[in-house]
Amino acid sequence: MKSKDNAAGFGILAILILLVLLPLAAVLFQVVCPGLQIEKFDPSNLKLVLDVFVRPLWKKAFFNSFFLSIGTTVIGLLLAAFLAHVRVRYSFFGARFLDIVSWILMIVPSFILAQGWVYFASGNGIASAWLGIEGVGGFVFSYWGLVFVMVLCKYPLAYVTIKAAMEWYPSRLVHAARMNGASPFRAWLTVQLPLCIPAYCSAAMLIFMDTVGDYGMSSTITAVYSFPTLPYTIYSAICSSPVRFDMAGVLSFYLMIMIMIAMIIQYAAMGKRKFDFLDNGTEQVTPQRIGRIKSAALSAVTFCFCLAALGIPVGSNLIMSFSSSVSIQRFRFTLDNYAKVFQTGSQLLTGVKHSLSLAGVAAAIGIIIGFCVAYVLTYSLFKLKKVIDMMTLIAMAVPGVVLGIGYIFVWNQKWLTPLGLHLYGKPSILVLASVAAAIPLINRVLVGGMAKVPKSLLIAAQVQGAGFGRRMRTVLLPLLHGSVVSAVLAAFGGSVFNLAITTILYPPNYSTLPVYISDSYNDLKFGYAAAATIVGAAFIIGIMLILEYLMNLSRSGTNRPACAARSPRRNCAAETGRGDRFAGDSQTRP
């Protein structure tokens, strides 16, 4: 068993080195060897590492990213935990609407959301010019305003993770606590909450990493409010003349340092304790029906929240798509922008086609690799598990533009041409970069789910003669159905709208949807860019909703994994009559 764990671990490690470590090492090496030109190698450039606390721009970018990420993580985690608890525990009219809005916010790129907030809160924006609300711009374009906007943009990452972890209810442990005098709140605080620590830690890491490495939001907001962050400063260093490769390497190094510190905190919080609790005393949660007044109140609060999180940025883009002017104050209704989008020969459909194909391939490859990574981290005895975990986290922390630059350095070498591996300028490099960006998110979601499943279930199935494939199919995958669906959809949506990577790596005459929208926006065609955004996003979201429905069709048949773990050759339905209560047998899914 240990030899198999080592073989799988080294295989996963090799894949991650190729996808993640080599590109990032190429970028970091720019500090001492700008442009990877050996004749420019100068070890004395290492002193630049300390300049981040001396040079005003570097220092400001570092602390802006740090405090913005901390504020967003703390508030976003609290908000996501509250929403997930309400969604899982109670049945109300707006519950499904909250899920849909969260998924939309997860896949819509941050630069589009930021663009909508700029249209709404700027001096001549919708809030001031149309609604007569003063002071909105002063709040949004401040530190706490940016934290507010980032929380509304990033909370779905934590919401999906925590919600998937709350699907199972340790009824036997909770009943034991209640019988010993614990109140419902104390039972939740001392039993359920500690068992969900892996999910909360994963959720916090997702928010922190996505915030600290976000380029789209900071670049859009910076055009209105001077708030440089590390990703934006790195991009400026790469695009400046002359190109500052050393500056990009130093700032990327500090991004990784922040992630390592966050990982140390996560490991300290979890320690060496085990958090698996799925056994014959575990039930699947069924949302409780509540009174009409409470249901109406929850639904009203949910709709107001969704209006602020999604309605304002998307609505602002929608309004701009019907404008013939670049200013809201000079708004004139027109359908010309949509007419241009749908005209014959429009590049939008071509961009959508390319984005869908790339996202589909990246999600398929990413879920396979991500599942293997999560399995190795959770169940194997591989000694380098923490190295694998660190590499997956670093991939999410580094901005996509930096990862894209690293892929150029790695896959644009002349000696790769005879080997047929000169991938720069080909769609395959986009697939590799998209997979590298998707693996950390997939891994975090699946690790949070696997932490609930004890290894003893898999061992029991193995003792009964089930092979590895059968154990995965009849035990682990049914218990991880919600997490797998969440991971696939998140990877697919993130790959479709990955602006940074596609902007850097897209081949000539191979435009993608985010590049198409960004080019139109940069050409000051705001109305046309907004129309393309609305049409493209609606099309992609529709496809994702259909995909989610298809993936959940077989969900009702995955509710008896514990019986399969005990005896994969026996019928679970025949065992339920003996009085045993196994995970998934006592209740059906809502």
From TrEMBL:
Any one Pfam family match given in the protein's UniProt record, by short name: BPD_transp_1
Any one biological process term the GO annotation gives: transmembrane transport
Chief location category: membrane
InterPro entries: MetI-like (IPR000515), MetI-like_sf (IPR035906)
Recorded topology in the membrane: Multi-pass membrane protein
GO CC aspect terms: plasma membrane
Compartment(s) of residence: Cell inner membrane; Cell membrane
Record's keyword terms, sorted: Cell inner membrane, Cell membrane, Membrane, Transmembrane, Transmembrane helix, Transport
Domain ABC transmembrane type-1: from-to ranges: 62-266, 352-547
Keyword Membrane: yes
PROSITE patterns attached to this UniProt entry: ABC_TM1
Residue ranges crossing the lipid bilayer per the database entry: 61-85, 97-120, 140-166, 187-209, 251-269, 296-315, 356-378, 390-409, 429-447, 479-506, 526-550
PANTHER family per the UniProt record, alphabetical: INNER MEMBRANE ABC TRANSPORTER PERMEASE PROTEIN YDCV
Family assignment from sequence similarity: Belongs to the binding-protein-dependent transport system permease family.
Record's protein name: Iron ABC transporter permease
Native organism: Clostridium symbiosum (Bacteroides symbiosus)
Lineage: Bacteria, Bacillati, Bacillota, Clostridia, Lachnospirales
